[in-house]
Amino acid sequence: MPPGTQIFDFSWVGGHLGQIVERILQHLELTIPPLILGIIASLALAVWAVRQPRVYAPITAITGLLYTIPSLAAFAALVPITGITLITAVIPLTTYTLLILFRSFATGFTSVPGEIIEAAEGMGYTRRQRLFRVELPLAVPLMIAGIRLASVTTIGLVTVASAIGGDTFGGLGQLITEGIQTFFPTKYLLGAALSVLLAFSADFLFVRVERLITPWARVRVGAG
Amino acid sequence: MDGVIAFFTDPANWTGDTGIPHRLFEHLYISGSSVLLALLVAVPIGLYIGHTNRGSSIAINLANIGRAIPSYAMMVIPLPLTLTLAPILGYDTGFGLTFLPIFIAMTFLAIPPLLVQTYAGLRSVDRDLVEAGRGMGMSERQILGRIEIPLASSILVGGLRTATLQVIATATIGAILGGGGLGRLIFDGMLQGVVGYPSLFAGAILVSALAIGVDLILAWVQRRLTPRALRAPRRGATSSPASVVGGPDLASPATGGTA
């Protein structure tokens, strides 16, 4: 940074709002599909693991292994195969959600107390009814907690995707990268601040969602 | 794929400052030093909070905030400061660009899992045992050193495992700032386009192997430190006994530390 320049130039921000909004939207476009894919896959895996407990350990081991691979390496490993495309970003972003989501979903399902399941059976619920009317609703708080953590993690990982996505699907990470390459602090600090803000917003959003869809938890707190 | 094999068998890639051994050394050096600094900061605080149960909610909340900050963002936030301070403190500007901000980010990212798991580990110790120790006339220091830390050790290593993997992954991203380490094989390859694919792919393999290798070693240590009766029958099921704070998975995703 040349001496005498401001660290943060607010007038630049005002003049480039369009570009900034576009990067935010790109960031969301990269965050949401992997989350949805991850939720669907983890839901299926968790239901499978609840019905067949012996698959729990292998699923945890495999999703854990995928989670251990550093994100830049995962993106890079796919570049020679899928090129500089959205798929290259979406595949690792999805697999990274699996460990968190699978574990929270499976824990959610199995944390339903035995007497509640017995009560449901006593009322003549079929296995399917029990899953949808008893186990799923009671698992919701833990599931949302998992989705919350997965969304925050994914938002962070999307910033790294700019290293391979560049201009095409860089998201807020691209603001950071361009700012560094041009020695322009306003741009990289803005990219960093917005990505932090996005992560916190997602976190906050899911706390609200959890409160909204589990009214019984609120009642209990109110009564106690 | 032939290109990748050629990359690994080319002697030029095994020597000099851009060779694989030197890049590996850089990666281990920055990762090791930041984990060490984070340990020095986080463990005493975690031990204090865990032993006294004072200030736990503040620490856990701070740690959760730390976890929400994307690592790439964390790396550039200190950048204006590290560049500005270079002439003042008399270090090289390159050091302020390619080492210091990455090192600071990695240290800050390693503190939350270490702090939370140290706290969680100590809180997981049966209070009756602590009381028994007190009844036997042990000092608080002895209770900490002879009861709490030994019983919590596998959870403490769980925190070290999460922190180390987070750090190894972040060091990889440091290549974007021009930092050393194996991430450079990826990033330098990336900049060359298709010609650089072998370097890119080789870098991805090496970084993944490093992360998985370190994870396996620490998982083994963690398992060794787990009291025999509490060990899970198979490796896959061990994940971590650390789900003490804030429900399962929230305290930490147990394994790994993607960044």
Give the structure's gist in a few sentences.
The complex is a heterodimer of chains A (about 220) and B (about 260). Chain A is mostly helical and about 220 residues long.
What does this structure look like?
The complex is a heterodimer of chains A (224) and B (259). Chain A has 224 residues and is mostly helical. Chain A has helices spanning 10-15, 17-51, 56-68, 71-82, 86-110, 114-122, 127-169, 172-181, 185-213, 215-223. The longest helix of chain A has 43 residues, at 127-169. The model of chain A has no long low-confidence stretch (mean pLDDT 89). Chain B has 259 residues and is mostly helical. Chain B has a domain at 31-180 and 217-238: MetI-like fold (Orthogonal Bundle). Chain B is built from twelve helices and no strands. In chain B, α2 runs parallel beside α7, α2 packs antiparallel against α9 (140-173) and α9 packs antiparallel against α11. The radius of gyration of chain B is 21 Å and the shape is globular. Mean pLDDT of chain B is 86; it is low at 234-256. At the A-B interface, α3, α4, α5, α7 and α8 of A face α4, α5, α9, α10 and α11 of B.
